[in-house]
Design a protein that fits this description.
heterodimer, A: alpha+beta, 5-stranded antiparallel beta sheet, 17 strands, B: alpha/beta, 24% strand, electron transfer activity (chain B)
Amino acid sequence: MAMRRSHVIRYALEQYKSYRVPNAAQSLPSWYTKGTNGSLDSWSRCVHGSVALTQKKAGRVPLSSERFPQLKRGDFARVTDGDLQVFERLVPSRVLTEPGDIEGHNVDWSGTCRGAGQVLLRPKTTEEVSAILRYCNGRRLAAVPQGGNTGLVGGSVPVFDEVIISMSLMDKIISLDEISGVLVCQAGCVVDKINEALEPHGLMTPHILGSKGSCQIGGNISTNAGGLRMLRYGNLHGNVLGVEAVLANGDVLDCLSTLKKDNTGYDLKQLFIGSEGSLGVVTAASVLCPRIPGAVSVALLGCDSFAQVLQTYDAAKKMLQEILSAVEFMDRASMEVVQENLQLTCPLGAHRYYLLVETSGSNAAHDEEKLNSLLGHVMEKAMVDDGTVATEPSKVQSLWALRENVAVALRADGCVYKYDVTVPMSRFYDLVTDTRERVGSDATRVVGYGHLGESDIHLNVTCPQHSEDVFDALEPWVYDWVAKCKGSVSAEHGMGILKRDYLYHSNTGPAVLLMKQLKERMDPRGILNPYKIFPD
Amino acid sequence: MWPIFDYGRFVSIISSSDVYGVVWMRSLAQLHKMANLRVLVGVKRVIDYAVKIRVKPDNSGVVTDGVKHSMNPFCEIAMEEAVRLKEKKLAKEIIAVSCGPAQAQETIRTALAMGADRGIHVEVTGKEYENMTPLHVSKIMAKLAQDQEANLVILGKQSIDGDNNQTGQMTAALLDWPQATFASEVTKENDHLKVVREIDGGLETVKVTLPAVITADLRLNEPRYATLPNIMKAKKKKIAKHKAADFGVDLTPTLEVVGVEDPPVRQAGQKVESTEELVAKLKDSGVV
C-alpha cells in the first residue's frame, strides 16, 4: 500500500474512484431455496456446474454430496474422538471443530460447492503436515489441503467429510537470494504479502492474479496458476525451481532446490505443479522472481473488427518485442459490465473489441519511444480506431482496473456461468459469438474477455438467477465446441470437481490412464483430495 | 479585455433594410459574447499519487529521482474544466502553464493532449525549484495572466505534494481579481460566472465577475484521458520557454524546510481477556 502523503486528498481521490458492487441481485438462484425434490433432479443429470453467485451464504449453499447424488462417498474412515485427540497431540490448539469456525472453509469462493468437513487442522511446519498425513493414511481418513480457498472449480473444499488441512499458518519466508532472485518460502504465504516483502529488494513474483490478496503460493503451484504476467514471465512450471511436498504416506519429499539448472534424473517437482493437491501436499517452494520493471506503460486500444485485433497483436509483438509484458482482450459487453455495475469509466468510446497492451522495461524513454512508434503505426494503418496510453502508475492502475474487475462486475448480474478455455487464436472470439446465438435473449449478458497472448478466453454468461434452459444450452455444448478445435476445457482454473467430467475432452485415453496410474502409485489409499480431477 | 459593448443599440443604428448587415453584426456580437474567455490553466508536475513515497535518509525531503511523476490530479480537473468551456464555445483559447524543471514539459504536453492550445514552460531547476513556494508561483501566474491578456485563471485547489491551497488565492489577490475557490460547478451567465463552492458547511453559490480566478475541487468534473489522435496533435502545439526572471519574479526562498519525517509507525494494539484487565490497563497508562 502506498504511503499517503496527504490523507485527506488520497482518501478523497480513493472515494472518487472507488466503487461498490451494488447489492443489485439479492435474489439467489431458485435452486437455493427450493426443496430437495424439485431442483436437485436437474442437478443429478450433471456432476458439474460452473456457477458463481453474488453472495456466499455458506448455510444456504447445498451440500455437494446432495448436489451430486450419484457421487458416492469413498471407502474412507470417519473422524472419531480418538482421532481428534491424536490431532490435538500433533498440532496442539490448532484443531478446529466448531461449525462456526469451519463453515467458511467448507465453501469455495464462488459459493457453489459446500462440503461437510468436520475438522480443520492448521499445521505450522512441514513435520506437522507429515505427521498428520502419516496418521490419516494409516487410518484411511481422506484429507483436503487448502490454501487461500480462491479456486473456481471447487477443488479446495471437501466434498463429503474430508479433513481440511489449512496451510495458512505456514506463511514464513525462509530465504531470499537477491542476486539470483530466488525466493524460498512456505506454501501458505499469500502472494500479495510475498510481493510486499520482495518490493524493497526490487523483486516481484513471476505471476500475479486478481486473487493475490488471498491466494497462497502453495495453491498457485498446485493449480499451476497463470495470471496476467504469463506472456512475459512464463508459467510456474518454468519459474518454480524447487518444491517440498509431503506425500500421502507422510514421507517428506525434499526437492527444494534453488538451482536454475539441474538435469539430474526425473524432474519430480513438476508432478506437484498443477496436480491440485492430489499427488502430495506442497509445503514449501523456491521461486525464481524477476525484477520489478522500472517503467510500465499501458495502452488501451479500441478496434472494430477481430481482424484488426489480430493485426494489432502482431504489430505489438513485432514492434515492442522484449518489452511487451501483457496483451489482454475485452469485448464491448465486458466493458459495458464494468461501466454499468461498477461505475468505472472507459476512456474510449464504444468499440467492438478492446486491447490492453502493457510494456515493462528498465528505461522509460526507450519504452515510450517504442510504444509511440507502435501507436503511430497502428493508427496510421487503421488497425485501431482509437486508443489512449498511460505511463503514470495511477493511470496505469485505472486502465488495468477495467480489465481486472470484469469478474467482480459480472457477479452483480446475479448468476454467472464461467468458462475458461484455450482455443486457437484464429477462432478466439468465435466461441462467444456462437454462444450468444445459442442462448439468445435467455441470458442477460454473454461476455468474452481474456489473455489474448495465450489464446485463453473467459466466456461468461449471466442470468438474474440460475436458469435450467441456459445451463442446458451451455453444457456440455461449450466443452464439445472446445474439444472439436482441440482446445483446453480449462485453461488456468484446473479440473476440481466442477470440470472433472470433461477430462477426456482435452486428454486422450492413454494419457488419463497414465495419470491414474501415477495417482495410484503415489497415493495408494486415495486419501489426498479425492473426488477431484478424474471422472469415475 | 473585451469592452462592454451595447450591441443592441449598435444594431438599431443600422437601417432596417440592411437585413444581412444586421444578421452579420448580431452573430458577430453573439460570437464575441460567447467565446470571449482566454483561459490560463496552471498544471503542476508532482509525484504520481499511486507511488510509494520514500523520505530521504537525511530527512531533507522526499526522494524524487527516478520516481514516476504525473500531473497533479486537481490540475487535471482544472484543465478538464477549461476544455469543457472551450467545447461549449465559451472559451476561445486555453494556455497551459507549468513552473519546473525540463520534465515539466511532459506535463504541459499532457495538458496539450487534453485540449490546451499552447503551453508556457517557466523553467525553474535545482535548489530554486526545491525552495519554490506558492507565493513565487502566484507572482508568475499573475504576471502571465496580465501579459497573455487572460480573463480566467483556473488552478487546482492544491497540489498533492505541497497541500498548501494558497496559489489560487494569492494569484487573485495579486491581480486584484475576484476568486471562487473549491469550485464544484462553474456556469457562465452573461458577463459573470456562477460558481458552486464546496465548503465545510455544505455548498455555497457565488457570483464572480470576470476576470476571475477559480480553483478546482474534486467533484468539479472527471478529467478525460488523452486519446491517441489528440496525443499526436499535441506534438505539434507550441510550448514557449521562459525563466522566472522574465516576469520580474525573484525566486529567493522565503521558507526553509527544516526536516521531513515519516509519520510514526502505528503501534500494535493489545488484546485483553476481561473488562477488569481493560480497566487495570487504562488506569496503568494514566488514561483513567
